[in-house]
Amino acid sequence: MTPPARLPVAGARAVRRAAVELVRADARAFVRMLVLNTAAAGAGLAAPWLLGRVVDTVVAGGGAAAVDHLALALAGCALAQFLLTRYGRLLGHRFGERTSARIREQFVSRALALPAATVERAGTGDLAARGTGDVPVVGATLRDAAPEVLIAVLQTVFLLAAVLVLAPLAGAVGLLFLLGIPVAARWYLRRAPAAYLAQGETHSRLTGTLAATAAGARTVEALGLQERRTEVTEAVAAEWLRSREATLALRSVLFPAVDVSYVLPVVAVLLTGGLLVGHGAGDLGAVVSCALYLRQLSAPLDAILQRMENLQSSRASFARVEGLAAPPAPPEAGGRVPDGDRIEVSGVRFAYDAGGSDVLHGVDLSVRPGERLALVGPSGAGKSTLGRLLVGVERPREGSVTVGGVPVAELGPELLRRHVVLVTQEHHVFRASVRDNLLLAAADADDDRLLAALDAVGATWAAELPAGLDTPLGAGRYELDGSRAQQLALARVVLADPHTVILDEATALLDPAAARLTERALAAVLSGRTVIAIAHRLGTAHDADRVAVLDGGRVTEIGPHDDLVAAGGPYAALWRTWHGTPPEGAAPPPARSPGPEGAVPGASGPGAPGPDADPGVTREPAG
Ligand code: ADP
Predict the structure, then answer these.
(1) How far is the CA of 398 from the centre of ligand 1 (A)?
(2) At CA 442, angle to CA 436 and CA 444, rounded to 5?
(3) 8 A C-beta contact, residue 498 and residue 529
(4) CA dihedral sign, ordered 244, 246, 248, 251
(5) Which of 136, 199, 339, 609 gives a 20 to 30 Å CA spacing to 31?
(6) Confidence of residue 581 (pLDDT cuts 50, 70, 90)
């Protein structure tokens, strides 16, 4: 089995571009937030500077009144900083919430726009993980971490600038000692991801082991496995302990190194500044202000360091979320609208995996409007695959599948719905009102049209709905059973009003209890349309205008039922097998090797279909 093709992940450039786009989408709020936080960071510089002035005033023998004025100004600045910071934060959180809402909306619309085949191959798990895991991570970062880091960066820049402006020489010496922080951070970041991954993994293993022992407690007891389980648990616990010690060791290096790096610059500024002031080359107040600035630096730097990991994991999540923005080869009909209703399949070759072997080997088929064509053949012949190509879920590797001269896979969903619709038993009832469930097929339909569509498929129950078309459907609300759900799905087909229906019998109408009810509804839906039925019951083939026999990815026979039976080929053999009539001597069924899931027509000999018969071929339900 080939591994599922993963959904794409955005590259570094695409991530940067997307981030810029998000800022641009709410540019005014972003600028306001930036201005306020810049003002707050500026106000934050006033207090240490004023303290420096106080020192200078005292040294110069200034009076108490001058100091009082400075103290008052200091209090005013502190209040201004507090208010600006609070408001700046509020704006930051709002910006974050709005942006994360935008990402969620984008994600939903992109997920819905993904080609069905892409989601099928990647598996819905990946998509669900991105929606439920990565999108919230990005949202939380935008709301909390990003504004905090932005503010911290602004404060850091202001503080560093102030230090260098106030006391250039002493400040520069002090800042040199700050270099310990990036060195320690680099050292830590190189080791931390692997160490934390290992810790998470051993923790999962420990939890798993404990849960397995608890779940199998009786077995453990019955087989006297207590000691073995204890040993296993202890071994895993010891591993977990080691992994915890490893991460603790990393932190026990990082935090002291960072703390020392915060103190050393202050010491260096005081020493250098003191020396300079002693030699009459400096201003004591400025040195004090610088020391205070450097002391203040620890808060924003701590915030940046603590959020660094957060930002890193969010970046990875954002790349996965943005990955959906790059759909492989966007379909493009070039605005062409099908001219007529004719379906043409010509020279179609198709493989599920790029470079894999073909499943269809040059299929040609022409279906005239209004015709009923039955596709028959053994399991694995390629009938469902051809069905997927006919409704545009897959694109041919070579050749073309067109409706009215336009490739089906290039039609947008709106246009496609009006031309070709696939009917299977996978009829999903959306958790929404009856009306919304129906409007999916025809957004502009009025209530009369919706009711007429329900009526057309014999959904008499619709008249008894407690709130009419507004009745909410879904688990825990008004629940529809299988046949009603199928009627709802068929009403959608009536509303979409396609000229061609691809009917996959393999999954449709196999529930005998619901069969009669849905059969009538289906007949109503199919009447007047071109029908290509992937027939698993030969009764369908018998009633069709023409039958195409598919075998090994090729059309081996095509024609009206009677002609094919008379021709005595593979279809005739299949028909006899199904119908239970002995083969006529003149036309022995050709012997072929069985298909992947069962026997090929003609290989199972006369009589009623035995266990060897194509499991896809079933008799009609009685009655
Ligand atoms: P039928 O409908 O006639 O039973 P299918 O079209 O389902 O046949 O299958 C044709 C071939 O394509 C089979 O060999 C099957 O194993 C293969 N196939 C079908 N679906 C997939 C898929 N999603 N990925 C890879 N191979 C597939």
Answers:
(1) 17
(2) 85
(3) yes
(4) negative
(5) 136
(6) low
**Mean pLDDT computed over 192-213:** 86
Q: Which of 360, 363, 379, 384 to mutate to test the pocket of ligand 1 (most atoms within 8 A of CB)?
A: 384
- CA separation, residue 447 to residues 142, 418, 453 (Å): 43, 20, 10
Does pLDDT of 508 surpass 60?
Answer: no
Sole residue written with tokens 């989408």: 25
CA distance linking residue 78 with residue 130, whole number of Å: 44
**In whole angstroms, how far apart are CA 522 and each of 177, 452, 487?**
80, 15, 8
> Mean pLDDT, to the nearest integer, of 128-135?
84
Q: How far is the CA of 57 from the centre of ligand 1 (A)?
A: 88
C-alpha 271: how far from its chain's center? 57
CA 616 to ligand 1 centroid distance, Å: 13
CA 476 / ligand 1 centre spacing (Å): 36
Strand ordering across the sheet containing 406-407: 360-367, 343-350, 398-403, 406-407
* Residue type, position 511, single letter: D
**Residue 549 CA, ligand 1 centroid: distance in Å:** 16
3-state secondary structure 541-605: HHHCCEEEEEECCEEEEEECHHHHHHHCCHHHHHHHHHHCCCCCCCCCCCCCCCCCCCCCCCCCC
What does the pLDDT read at residue 79? 93
Task: Indicate left, alpha or beta for 219 from its phi (over 0: left) and psi (-120 to 50: alpha).
Answer: alpha
Band of residue 622 on the pLDDT scale cut at 50, 70, 90 = very low
**Residue ranges of domains in the chain:** 12-325, 343-619
Burial class (CB in 10 A: 0-12, 13-18, 19+), 496: buried
**Closest-lying ligand 1 atom to the alpha carbon of residue 2:** 25
Share of the chain above pLDDT 90, in %: 32
> Which residue's CA is the nearest one to ligand 1's atom 15?
380
Is residue 414's pLDDT more than 80?
A: no
Taking alpha carbons only, the member of 378, 174, 454 closest to residue 292 is 174
What is the rounded distance in angstroms from the CA atom of residue 536 to the CA atom of residue 378? 9
What whole-number distance in Å separates Cα of residue 111 and Cα of residue 324? 7
Ligand 1 site, residue 382, Cβ cutoff 6 A: yes
How do residues 597-612 score in pLDDT, each as one tens digit?
333 233 233 333 333 3
* C-alpha distances out from residue 34 to 10, 40, 93, 127, 162, Å: 28, 10, 12, 34, 19
* Superfamily of domain 12-325 in the CATH hierarchy: ABC transporter type 1, transmembrane domain (1.20.1560.10)
- The answer regarding whether domain 343-619 maps to CATH 3.40.50.1820 reads no
Determine phi and psi for 420, rounding to 5 degrees.
Answer: -135, 135
Q: What are phi and psi of 395, to 5 degrees?
A: -110, 145
